[in-house]
Each structure stands twice: as structure tokens, then as C-alpha cells.
């Protein structure tokens, strides 16, 4: 009888361990899925920003946006009174910015590359509408 109880106890403990491992596995799988989506969104935001760099933007209106077929996000260009501009690419929660300036009635994107933080003092100027 005690042997049977010992076997049942081991089965119960083994079952609890397997259940705990399964819960851990599901949590890590969910985390990996979220990280994969964030990486994909980041790549898409960078691609949109690069596309926005070479797009022939008109110099008005002050705020204009473009969407690219096949992309979940969009890229916007915002002009400021001081002759500067800001490209804003957003894909879900991932946002990238690129500064630019207007010289000789044409847009010149800065060569310093993109930024993953708002390069303007006013955070509201970095919002993608």
C-alpha cells in the first residue's frame, strides 16, 4: 500500500512540475512573440524613414503624411518656421525621426542619420498625427 502511495505521490509531483514548466514555456513564447513584433515594427519604421528621405516632398503644407503600400505605418514631414523640418516615421509603437532643412526651395535631409528620440525641444512637435 505504501508503495502505491509513493507512486501516486511521484505522479502528482511530476504532473505539477510539468504544468509549471508548461506555464513558463507559454510565458517565454509570448515574450518572444512580442519581441519579434517589436523588431519587425522597428525595421518597418526605419524603412519608412529611408523612403521618406528620398521621396519628393512638396514644400507645403506645413504637415503632410504619406503611406506606403504593404507597410503598417506611415511617414510624415513637418516644416517649422525657422527653416527646419522633421521626418517622422511610425509603425505601431516604433517611431524614428530625421531632421532636415529647407535651402534654396528644396528639402535637404541631414546626413547625421535617424534618431530614436525626439530631436526637438517641444515634444508635441515630434508627434505623428
Task: Please provide a brief summary of the model.
The chain is α+β, with helices and mostly antiparallel strands and 129 residues long.
SSE blueprint:
Elements: H1 2-54, E1 63-67, E2 74-79, E3 84-91, E4 94-103, E5 106-109
Antiparallel strand pairs: 1-2, 2-3, 3-4, 4-5
What can you tell me about this protein's structure?
It is a single chain. Strands 1-2-3-4-5 form a 5-stranded antiparallel sheet. The model has no long low-confidence stretch (mean pLDDT 90). The protein has 1 helix and 5 strands; from the N terminus they run αβββββ. The longest helix has 53 residues. With 129 residues, the chain is α+β, with helices and mostly antiparallel strands.
Provide key terms for this protein.
single chain, 129 residues
SS field, number of helical segments:
1
Whole-angstrom Rg: 25 Å
- What is the N-to-C order of secondary-structure elements (H for helix, E for strand)? HEEEEE
The percent range for helix content is 40-55%
Low-confidence stretches: none
**Mean of all residue-level pLDDT scores:** 90
What best-fitting shape do the alpha-carbon axes yield? rod-shaped
Largest sheet: 5 strands, antiparallel
Secondary-structure content class: alpha+beta
- Terminus-to-terminus distance: 73 Å
Describe the strand arrangement of the main beta sheet, using strand numbers: 1-2-3-4-5
Count of distinct strands: 5
Q: Report the sheet-strand fraction.
A: 25-35%
